[in-house]
What we know:
Blueprint: E1 2-8, H1 13-23, E2 28-36, E3 41-48, H2 54-64, E4 70-73, E5 79-85, H3 90-100, E6 106-113, H4 119-124, E7 129-131, H5 139-150, E8 157-160, H6 169-173, E9 179-186, H7 195-202, E10 206-213, E11 223-230, H8 237-260, E12 264-267, E13 270-273
Parallel strand pairs: 5-6, 5-8, 6-7, 8-9
Antiparallel strand pairs: 1-3, 1-4, 2-3, 9-10, 10-11, 12-13
Helix pairs in contact: 1-2, 3-8, 7-8
Amino acid sequence: MVIVxxxxxxxxxxxxxxxxxxxHGINILSMREFVDTTASVFFARLVVDxxxxxxxxxxxxxxxxPEDASIKVNPNPIKRVVLLVTKEYHCLSDILIRNHFKTLGxxxxxxxxxxxxxxxxxxxxxxxxxxxxxxGKDKSVFEEEIKQQINEYHFDYLILAxxxxxxxxxxxxxFPDCIINIHHSFxxxxxxxxxxxxxxxxxxxxxxxxxxxxxxxxxxxxxxxxQTIPVNHTFSVADMVKAGKEIEKAVLIKAIQLVFDDxxxxxxxxxxxxx
Length: 275
């Protein structure tokens, strides 16, 4: 059983938590804790022996912890997700394969695309695919159609698996801290069209990717995972695109599995990750 806690820091929190668990006869199997001294916020993730009355344990912890404490006792170990896609298949296919073989740590409920290109691969894995065309529509109408489709499903997270549309603040506000995105990130960073060609023309030596929670600031939400790989003058544009796709899907899968495993805490525009 997993317990995750986030609250204002004070002396003796670890003792208070372990005392409650001891009183309930629950053994701590592992514990990770961290204090952000600047914000004075305490974070903890515990793995403990199973306990049949999770609600009683939650209430007991609530009594001894600071008033603002966020406490999750035995969160659902198998999360549910809806994916948003456009045309690129590499992130989607990786997730669908893991979902098929039960190694994702989540169940994919549905895939929604603003192009029909990826419907076939979803059909092969028997995952519902919904095509919602954005062309010729006001953005608010398009997003409302997406929200209506999303809300047909029970889900914990929305995964943007190379969904190439910028979401509005009103859409993001409806799903706080549960939209996860992947984007290429170079040193230096290249924005706009054809980032890999820009990187090639500049002769970059590193390419990478960043997975993050989505906020109103484009590609600037709390970072969950990042990775870079070296490239050199022998790489063509096609080579860079291929390498970039590999690192994008690797970073996205790492990020979402950390989230699914309840190892990621959000504090303002940062994260605490017990990896």
